[in-house]
Design brief:
44% of the residues lie in helices and 27% in strands. The chain is of the alpha/beta class. The strands form 2 sheets. Strands 4-5-6-7-8 form a 5-stranded mixed β-sheet, with helices on both faces. β5 and β6 (143-151) form a beta hairpin.
């Protein structure tokens, strides 16, 4: 069965993030179609082996069942020439990266910003990778900016956070550009925000200046202010 352009878009976007929930795919790629269409398309791609269901995304603190989570299936990996094995479990970090990207696209539709460039797991030489890089225009302010977004689930120890910060600081020292993007840690809970803020306050002043930590709901309003 011949794949449609939208089928290819589903596969490529899923590969980019490694895993996506059906809610991500529906809003990003099927906003112009009725609610039944994405279910039919995703179900067909699963039956043909292009996609694989990993499970359901947990919802809320008590972990209720949510949307199906998808990754490339065997046929999808062969089609896109992707190496590696299927992941056996839902990757919540990948899904929160996708949540963040989706929030940026929602802000774009609302006219708050325009996404000019973005990338996942972008190398920031010499020693770190950004979970999500985004370059945006803010049309109401007639300015542009860019950000390295670190998606934090609250599982990494302070030593690992400091290691990441040091990696970004090495990138600052190696950079010849006039501007270096803010490094923004995106978290879900106020407790984690307070914990990271405490770590940042102990940094040298010049390193503090490049770091921010934001709770997910305040992401877009605070980016507009940076």
């Amino acid at each position: 069965m011949e794949l449609t352009h939208r089928d290819y878009d589903v596969l490529k976007l899923t590969h980019t993030f490694s895993q996506l929930a059906s809610t991500h795919l529906t809003e990003l790629l099927f906003a112009d179609r009725s609610h039944s269409v994405p279910d039919k398309v995703l179900g067909r791609l699963v039956r043909l082996g292009y996609l694989s269901r990993v499970g359901r995304r947990a919802t809320g603190d008590k972990g209720g069942a949510g949307a199906f989570v998808y990754q490339l299936g065997r046929a999808g990996r062969l089609l896109l020439d992707v190496d590696g094995r299927l992941m056996p479990n839902v990757n919540n970090h990948a899904l929160m990266i996708a949540d963040t990207y989706l929030e940026l696209r929602r802000a774009e539709r609302a006219g708050v910003l325009a996404v000019k460039e973005w990338d996942i797991e972008l190398p920031v030489p010499p020693a770190v990778r950004a979970d999500l890089f985004v370059a945006v225009d803010f049309p109401q302010q007639s300015r542009s900016s860019s950000f390295y977004l670190e998606i934090d689930l609250g599982t990494e120890q302070p030593a690992r956070i400091r290691e990441k910060i040091y990696g970004y600081w090495r990138a600052v020292e190696a950079s010849t550009a006039d501007y270096f993007p803010y490094v923004v840690f995106v978290v879900r809970q106020q407790v984690r925000k307070n914990e990271l803020a405490r770590i940042f306050r102990r940094l040298p002043e010049e390193q503090q200046e490049m770091m921010r930590v934001l709770i997910f709901p305040e992401l877009i309003p605070e980016l507009v202010r940076l």
